[in-house]
Write a structure and sequence with these properties.
Length: about 400
């Protein structure tokens, strides 16, 4: 079944307006990306309006129809570019206005005498440029999530740019060889490609936005709200994998278990606001001293843990002692008073007796209990004898 050009125009107009409506609806439910999605909604609505003007350019606008409809369509492309660039914190307002003015001058100077050539060939150049810039913004993606949908959008906008480059520079050559029939076929191909572009790109950008929101929700579900460290869920999910990999390659991995000393007394005497400040201060200290490879988590009220890949006992001990000394040297405000808090630390290194994260945490807890019983504000490490005794006890319980 052959679809005529007017029907294809109606399809493009309908899909663009539907895409605009979906972008606008999405912006209402995603405050973080509200401005970007609203700009994209305006861009697709403008493209739809431009296509509507193009389909009736002669009947409604007379000789000025091609120029007006082309400038409206170009405005839509530039608004879409601006919306995509806003994801990366950039805008193209000045350059967009400059390109529109340049194209308007082109129509004013050359459009009267060579209207068909400007409509078929020259008008494709700024559209190709806008699509290329959109593809490059998606490729840079320094403010966008690194998800599959973004890569699809890069390819899609790149193909769209190449299509219009071919229309601007290859089509004139083909028309000179094969005659006017090529132009009619080109118009139909342009509309078919336009239908696909007007459907797939908005869907891809919406998918990218939703994947970004989903990723943020997932991160929040694994993050402690107060300290912004990981929570128990993240610690066990990532920790088990790290221990398994390090045991497979026979690399050391150590765990530090932390418990703030007399924290209940601080809360009871100075209030939860001061207690929260102490917790945040400790989180900042341990984050600064353990490095980027460490897996950090708040696993209880005043209990924290740090899994240190590539650390043997001696190296982990130095890290723990540095954390303890730095934290003890800090002071915290409480109704004009300055209070100091300390931390007790238990250290365990993964070995034959600690083959899982649960075993390693249990071993570090034993050392932590010993540090607390000795008065706190100190680091204790688990002895191999204690680990062996614990392992034998576990074996007897299984029997």
């Amino acid at each position: 079944m052959k679809v005529d050009l007017a029907t294809l125009y109606l399809l493009v107009i309908g899909t663009l307006l539907a895409s605009s409506a979906m972008m606008y609806w999405e912006h209402l439910s995603h405050p973080k990306r509200s401005k970007e999605l609203r700009m994209l909604a305006i861009g697709y609505a403008t493209l739809g309006l431009g296509c509507a003007a193009a389909s009736f350019r002669v009947q409604l606008l007379g000789a000025a129809g091609p120029a007006v409809s082309n400038l409206v369509i170009l405005t839509g492309y530039l608004l879409v570019l601006d919306g995509v660039a806003m994801f990366n914190g950039r805008r193209y307002l000045a350059s967009s206005i400059g390109l529109l003015v340049l194209m308007a001058l082109t129509w004013a100077v050359a459009g009267v005498r060579w209207q068909a050539a400007v409509w078929m060939y020259v008008s494709a150049i700024p559209i190709a440029l806008a699509s290329t810039m959109t593809s490059l913004e998606l490729l840079r993606g320094d403010g966008m999530p690194a998800v599959q949908s973004r890569r699809v959008a890069v390819v899609l906008t790149g193909i769209h740019a190449l299509f219009y480059i071919a229309r601007a520079f290859v089509l004139p050559w083909m028309a000179s060889i094969f005659g006017p029939r090529v132009l009619a076929v080109s118009s139909e191909i342009t509309m078919y490609e336009g239908v696909l572009y007007s459907v797939i790109l908005p869907m891809t950008l919406l998918r990218m936005t939703r994947e970004e929101i989903h990723g943020e929700l997932l991160r929040e579900s694994r993050t402690d709200y107060l300290t912004r460290l990981g929570n128990r869920k993240l610690f066990f999910e990532q920790g088990e994998q790290v221990i398994s990999e390090h045991q497979m390659h026979r690399r050391p991995v150590a765990l530090l278990a932390f418990d703030l000393d007399h924290f209940k007394r601080i809360n009871d005497r100075y209030g939860h606001k001061t207690g929260d400040e102490v917790l945040r201060s400790f989180a900042e200290t341990v984050r600064a001293e353990t490095g980027t490879d460490a897996i950090l988590a708040r696993i209880g009220g005043e209990e924290f843990a740090a899994l240190l890949p590539g650390h043997d006992t001696e190296r982990a001990k130095k890290v723990g002692e540095t954390v303890a000394s730095r934290f003890a040297a800090m002071s915290h405000g409480a109704d004009g008073d300055r209070i100091r808090a300390t931390v007790s630390i238990g250290l365990a290194e993964s070995n034959r007796e600690t083959t899982s994260l649960t075993d390693l945490l249990s071993a570090a807890d034993q050392a932590l209990y010993r540090a607390k019983s000795l008065g706190g504000n100190r680091l204790e490490q688990t002895s191999r004898a204690a680990l062996a005794a614990d392992s034998c006890s576990a074996d007897r319980n299984q029997i």
